[in-house]
Amino acid sequence: MRRRTLIGAAAGAAALIPSASPARADEPVDVALVVAVDVSRSVDEDEARLQREGYRGAVTDPRVVEAIRGGMLGSIAIAYVEWAGIEYQRLVIPWMRIGSQAEAEAWAAALAQAPRASLSWTSISGGLDFSRALMAQCPHEATRKVIDVSGDGVNNSGPPAEQARDRAVEEGITINGLPILNDRPTFGRPPPMPLDQYYRESVIGGQGAFLVPAEDFASFGNAVRRKLIREIAGRDGPVVDRA
Asked: Exposed, middle or buried: residue 43 (CB in 10 Å: 0-12, 13-18, 19+)?
């Protein structure tokens, strides 16, 4: 059932990408990157828009494209996922190879056209497990495999996030985090610990894992850009990289 869901969602999203060519398994990439974005009920319409605009602006930023082209193979593969409670994960943009400014612009245009949703609780574990399954379907051989998870709350639906993190790490996947520190209680309840601390202890993992906190939704775009450049370049650095 999960495999059919992934394939069906990919087919629908692919129609939104006018200039994307069919994925070819003989085109290796430097990084296979799953962008996994929180669209739970704590994320309102404006905040959901800011998240998407943050990724669109970051992927098309000339500094990010330069980092992509500067890799050994000069390209990455990227898939965009939105998740909420344990019952909801959606593949918004299927695997797409990016190796030029034009391909980055095509990806951003597809994301701009995709419909948005905001619902239910926050299942980081569900988002990670879905992203791990999606990673196994990547048509490109990748030097590194990364899940980039962003959100504004702790796991409150489904199994513990640590279990999903450990399953991904066992498969050689690095999980990096972008916690959004908006100081707003989740469903009226304060978080059990600062969100950046929670992401550090319970979400990120694998070789070279790190997190870049965004102080609020408005600063999300800058944090995404910094994070993508570091992920793509594979640079070592502090576990917490503050924008």
From this structure: buried
Tracing tokens 């797409």 back to the chain, one arrives at 96
Q: Mind listing the pLDDT tens digit for each residue in 34-61?
A: 999 999 988 878 788 888 999 999 999 9
Q: Which pTM was predicted?
A: 0.86
pLDDT beyond 50 at 132: yes
CA–CA separation, 80 and 177 (whole Å): 15
CA distance 67 to 75: 9
- The more confident residue out of 141 and 237 is 141
Pairwise CA distance, residues 82 & 78, whole Å: 13
DSSP labels for 171-212?
TT-EEEEEEB-----BTTB--SS-HHHHHHHHT-BSTT--B-
Helix, strand and coil in the chain, % to nearest 5: 40, 20, 40
What are φ and ψ of residue 11, in 5° steps? -65, -40
Estimate the crossing angle of helix 62-69 against helix 220-233, to 10 degrees. Answer: 10
Instruction: Indicate the CATH number for domain 2-10+28-233.
Output: 3.40.50.410
DSSP single-letter state for residue 20: P
Length of the chain: 243
User: What pLDDT is recorded for position 191?
Assistant: 59
Q: Which residues contact 1 (CB under 8 A, 6 or more apart)?
A: none
